[in-house]
Amino acid sequence: MPRQLPSNYKELNHYDLLDVPRNASNAEIRKAYRQLALVYHPDKNPGKDSTEKFKAIVLAMEILTDDTRRRQYDMALSSGNTENINNINANVNVDEAVSNILKMGVGLIFLGIFSAFRGYGDDLRAAVVENDVGAAQYAMGNGFFRDGASADINIEPNKSLLHYCFERGSAYKNMALAIIAEKKLFTLRDARLIAEQYDEDLIQAAVDTRRVSQTYFESFYQNNNCYANALIRAIVKNDVNVAKQAMNQGWLMRGASADTIISDNGKLKPILHYTLEKGDTYKEMTLIIIARKQHFSLKDICLIRDKHDSELISAVLKMGKVAKGSFIVPSYATRSYSTASAGNRGI
């Protein structure tokens, strides 16, 4: 059940009103603000009492997300100077701020667009930082690219949204998939970053946009290097000795590694996924690959976990690159992001 404001909400300071700590980040404040605003927005909850509570929430947001106002408010709050606190509150034109919000409509609350001084692009960036896939999808899928909310914008100078997600690993995979589905332009760097994740879901999402060809990824992974080709042939034939030799020699040649991608019935996938799908007859090959992997993706871990094979799990843990807890099934395991549900809007 959404949080409700207490009857004495007018007596609370802005932090307590939003239920955030005094060292809360802007992202945490925006998130708390969105949750309360969705409850008390006049379009959803008509009535004088809700309107007054909504104004209080807006006032708290306007002060705590403005660096200067927040600094002044913190000083007054620490010293207990009620007069200064009242002056700071009075300097905010809360009626105008509320009016701007009501013009935008309740739907945009999902983006946290509550200030006329913040652009759509900033709210998309905030959604990505918070790893809020729903808010990011809403921004990218409702035409806000005209006002700066596009899957192709940078989150930092010289760093795209996609690059930001990849730096944060598997926890941001669903966000990366959402961004890929909405991208209108793929640079060579984008395509290479996707290829370097060695993740078939990301590759397929990019190919589905019809803005990156599968040929590019095939060329990236199978660049006519003799060791890479030898490794792929050995994997298909389940020739453990040749595969071992190819990975040992090819690693320094940057051609054959335990992260090499193989084409299986027209679908690109890492060789580890290929051997796991082949079952027990490829178990020795799977162990060879695990022992040579430099990193394990979330999908690697899930596929190994789902085999319920203690020998495979022990081999991964022995590498020291994955925590033991990674093989415990999480409570949210049944929920997943689907590129199909995201759709290919605008493609």
Task: Explain this structure.
About 55% of the residues lie in helices and about 5% in strands. It is elongated and about 80 Å long. Helix 2 (about 25-40) packs antiparallel against helix 3 and helix 3 (about 50-65) crosses helix 6 (about 95-105). The chain has helices spanning about 15-20, 25-40, 50-65, 65-80, 80-90, 95-105, 120-130, 135-140, 160-165, 175-180, 190-195, 200-210, 215-220, 225-235, 240-250, 270-280, 285-290, 300-305, 310-320, 340; strands spanning about 155, 160, 260-265, 265-270. By secondary structure, the chain is mainly alpha-helical. Strand 3 and strand 4 (about 265-270) form a beta hairpin. Mean pLDDT is about 80; it is low at about 110-120 and about 330-345. The protein is built from 20 helices and 4 strands. The strands form 2 sheets. The protein has a two-stranded antiparallel ribbon. It has a two-stranded antiparallel ribbon with strand order 3-4. The chain has 3 domains: about 10-105, Helix Hairpins; about 120-220, no CATH class; about 225-325.
